[in-house]
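Sequence, please.
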C-alpha cells in the first residue's frame, strides 16, 4: 500500500462514484459542490452512476456536499469528507475510490472487500 492510498500524504487522488440504488427505481437528481467547484445537476436513472475525481487539499479539509432529490424527498449528505474518508483512524477508513450507493433511507459507502456497506444518516 502506498502512503497516498493510506491517507498519509496531502493531495491524495480521490474518485467518488455515486450510484442510484433507490428501491422505488425512481430517477435521482444529484447536485454536488465544494467551496471551489460545482459539479452541476445530474439526473440518474435506476442503476445509473455519476463520478468525479479530485485531490484532497493540503490541510485535509476537503468536503464535497451533495443534494439528492427523488419524488417526494430531498436530502443532503457530505459525500466526501477528508476527516472521514481520508483518515486512517476514522471508523470507515480511507477510500481512494469512494463508491456510494444511494438508497431512500441512507447513503451507503460500499466496501472494497464486499463486506457490509457503511451506511450513514442523511444530513437533512
Amino acid at each position: 500500500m502506498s502512503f497516498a492510498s493510506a491517507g498519509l500524504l496531502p493531495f491524495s487522488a480521490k474518485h467518488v462514484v455515486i450510484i442510484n440504488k433507490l428501491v422505488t427505481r425512481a430517477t435521482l437528481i444529484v447536485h454536488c459542490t465544494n467551496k471551489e467547484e460545482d459539479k452541476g445537476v445530474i439526473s440518474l436513472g435506476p442503476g445509473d452512476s455519476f463520478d468525479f475525481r479530485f485531490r484532497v487539499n493540503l490541510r485535509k479539509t476537503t468536503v464535497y456536499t451533495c443534494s439528492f432529490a427523488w419524488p417526494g424527498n430531498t436530502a443532503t449528505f457530505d459525500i466526501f469528507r477528508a476527516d472521514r474518508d481520508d483518515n486512517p483512524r476514522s471508523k470507515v477508513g480511507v477510500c481512494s475510490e469512494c463508491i456510494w450507493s444511494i438508497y431512500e433511507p441512507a447513503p451507503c459507502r460500499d466496501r472494497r472487500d464486499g463486506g457490509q456497506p457503511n451506511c450513514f444518516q442523511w444530513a437533512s
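The chain has a mean pLDDT of 91.
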